[in-house]
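Justification of computing resources. Each target in the renewal requires a structure prediction run like the one illustrated here; the chain below, 417 residues long, is used simply to show the kind of job we budget for.
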Amino acid sequence: MNKFWIILFHTYVSKLRTKSFIITTLITALIIFGLANIQTIIEKFDKDETSHVAVLTDSEGLYQAYEQTLIAMSSDIVIEKMDKTEDQAKELVASEEITGYLILAETAEGLPEGIYKAPSITDSAITGQLEQALQQLKVTIATTKAGLSPEQINELYAPVQFEKQALEENAKSEEELNQARGLVYVLLFVIYFAVIMYANMIAMEVATEKSSRVMEILISSVSPIKQMFGKILGIALLSLTQFAVILAVGYGSLKQSMSGMEGGFFEVFGFGDLPVSTFVYAGVFFILGYLLFATLAAFLGSLVSRIEDVQQMITPMTLLIVAAFMIAMFGLTKPESSVITITSFIPFFSPMIMFLRVGMLTLPTWEIALSIGILVLTITLLAIFGARVYRGGVLMYGKSSSFKDIKKALQLTKSEK
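Resulting structure tokens:
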């Protein structure tokens, strides 16, 4: 058992001290910090960049009405009526005195219409606000011409009262579903990226040691089970270390950028009133999913002799993870569909899909227990089979790019006995 711990901590410490791990962690933490403070960063760059738009029109009344509509929208665009020709307006745009100009006119029916001209129309924020204000003004004028009072107009555009109630006992309410959907969405991304990144790291670690011929010495003194799981758990500790740094930076940034945790990020994504069991299941399925794909990656990595062949060998595993993620994304809108129900019991899909169902639906305990049981059994069988392949695979050298090499690895394991 002492050798197992040596391999575990050696894997953890050696990877922890690599430049690639440190740089990746720092870059990820900086990205998280930037995303958490994106609004503040944008405001600092844009605080002095007010858009000035000239309005060319022959109707003073139409301009006044349009200006009031735009101000009521709390727009950051400053408009000014100019008694100039279009050629003069173009010169002002060219000299960057104004951002652009709007030609405002009336149709034959007395409704407003406009043409906005600028060097570039890529800034959808400006064109969108100008168009929205013109649309609101058109609605106001049209309803006034139809003889409707302001109260009738407000009543006409008031949102319809529509409620949804579940008849099933203990079914989640609409508010609870929205909260669960937000949390599940975030955690699905965490599971997806973590499994892909760290499973790939395990396969690379095995292939690197094998290419340096260190494996021949290790395999003669340490059992393949200890060696394989020492690497898997060592990199699991590494992933927890990286997650701890990223979560600490993310939490600190969010706490600083928001006035209070309630009503901000946690409320939007549904972290507020969800039951503790949802977070527990998230941890359970994350760990089981990691162990499943990490075990698969370890023995696939043992089949290759060159680091360049690792990606080709683990591509089918990566496609499985991508397929599970895509099905889970579909399940966010239809968690009760038969496809989601069936795939939630398939081991390579269940870490994401059963967690999705647990988060969004009220499931009987036996379904959750059955999915976890199948997943644990699959991990156990895969570990036993993987250890046998691993023992023979690490002694194989030469180009390895086919799954036929699994048979060769098993034959080598038998001959070792």
